[in-house]
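Please supply some protein, with fold tokens.
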Amino acid sequence: MAARIYQRIKNAMQSGRARVGTWTLEFEPAEAKKPDPLTGWAGSGDTHDQVRLTFPSLEAARAYADQYGIAVTVVAGPERTLKLQTYAENFAVGPITPAGE
């Protein structure tokens, strides 16, 4: 049984930072999904696909995986970058020239 551990990141529609720093353990699919003959919906008999475990730190997630013998792959999230600017930069225009020129 294999799983991956990743850190939740803030999406574009989210203004707050709630639950952003948590780590999630998600199992890799054991079988491919196939369409249901009656409804056409995709599904499989793999119930591990429905399980997502959250942990406060990477060490806690790795300890859980080691305790239960789960082979894990850690996926690093993107580095958070800040665009620092002043309020006045919102109104900055090119160089100001005198009216007579």
The CA atoms of residues 13 and 20 lie 13 Å apart. The chain has a mean pLDDT of 86.
